[in-house]
Design a protein that fits this description.
alpha/beta; seven-stranded mixed beta sheet; two-stranded antiparallel ribbon; 13 helices; 11 strands
Length: 357
């Protein structure tokens, strides 16, 4: 089992990665021998597939609360429903909430943990690749509004993150592939050698080779832990992880969450790369290199139906990354060289969208 430490002073926590990593629940105070109240918040599909693997490791008094899977569950109405389930079970402030599922479980369950009795401990147990390499690490929680994605949320660092790779066995191919987008994103903005590794081992990664998968998850968690330790609340450095997300979130919302988050991030990177290319920031060869890798990994290169450029630009203006009315983008000048800009125009967005239409 690999162990990574997120250094945040009194809020520091471990990340456990590997087969059967779920046994680390005991070390985190949520194990069968403990007397801490444990509430598991899981999506219905994950609870059905993997609940029996988890149950023996939890104390006898634990409860399991489920919600419908998918991005559409990330609502304030669902938060209230989960809060009321916790109230009915008389969950106290010294309890621990275990989020069990993909990025939605972490975002939703983490927000519930942050707001229940003004904040209780939380352990994330991601069961998707996307959550394992990105969403579970860093303390971001949140839910959506009709006006935009993740507009309501707080930073609430977990007590631990447990990435049990056994749970990835049942992950559908499309969801597995979607998770690779966040890994590519992180490599592009932070680690040129890691991007080259993706290119060299694309076949092994897509084939879910255990050694390749272990390295991919571990390296992503190392990179994310380092960034979070330097900039916990996205005051500067951490914002580079929004590469692909300004456009990606707009696509995601305009398509009614029809596509996976990672698929939209891949499309967002392609569009934002076109903006950077048109500005002379990004060499055409580098933009083509990224597009080729995205294609080799099985991620989409086009949206399923045309999007109107003014709608995309308007959706970007509703994003939480807007400051002073200006939309913040992360563009890249090359691998490992991101730059933050706030002057991308609707005309630039319209021109760049042709790359994915």
């Amino acid at each position: 089992m690999n162990l990574i430490h997120v250094s945040l002073g009194s809020r520091s926590y471990p990340i456990y990665i590997g087969p059967s990593a779920r046994v680390a629940l005991a070390e985190c105070g949520a194990g069968a021998e403990g007397d801490t109240q444990v509430a598991v918040i899981a999506d219905e599909t994950v609870a059905s597939l993997h609940g029996q693997r988890l149950e023996p490791l939890l104390n006898l008094g634990h409860i399991v609360i489920t919600f419908p899977p998918g991005e559409r569950s990330k609502t304030l109405e669902q938060v209230e429903a989960l809060h009321r389930r916790l109230a009915a079970a008389r969950v106290e402030r010294h309890a621990v909430i275990v989020t069990f599922g993909g990025g939605v479980a972490g975002d939703l369950g983490g927000f519930v943990a942050a707001t229940w009795l003004r904040g209780v401990r939380c352990i994330h147990m991601p069961t998707t690749l996307l959550a394992a390499v990105d969403a579970a690490v860093g303390g971001k929680t949140g839910v959506n509004l009709p006006e935009g994605k993740n507009l309501v949320g707080v930073f609430h660092q977990p007590a631990a993150v447990i990435v049990d790779t056994d749970f990835l066995d049942t992950l559908p191919a499309r969801d597995f592939t979607a998770g690779l987008a966040e890994s590519v994103k992180q490599a592009i903005v932070r680690d040129a050698e890691f991007l080259a590794w993706h290119e060299a081992t694309a076949a092994a990664v897509c084939g879910r080779d255990p050694a390749a998968l272990a390295h991919l998850i571990t390296r992503n968690c190392e990179l994310k832990a380092d960034i979070v330790a330097q900039d916990e609340r996205e005051a500067g450095l951490r914002a580079i992880l929004n590469y692909g997300h300004t456009i990606g979130h707009a696509i995601e919302r305009l398509l009614g969450y029809e596509l996976r988050h990672g698929e939209c991030v891949a499309l967002g990177m392609l569009v934002e790369n076109e903006v950077a290319r048109a500005r002379g920031l990004l060499a055409p060869s580098e933009a083509d290199r990224i597009r080729d890798l995205i294609a080799r990994l099985g991620l989409p290169l086009q949206v399923p139906r045309p999007l109107d450029a003014p709608d995309v630009a308007a959706a970007c203006r509703a994003d939480k990354k807007v400051r002073g009315g200006a939309v913040n983008f992360v563009l890249i000048r090359g691998i490992g060289a991101p730059v933050r800009v706030a002057d991308v125009t609707p005309a630039e967005i319209a021109a760049a969208l042709t790359a994915i239409q």
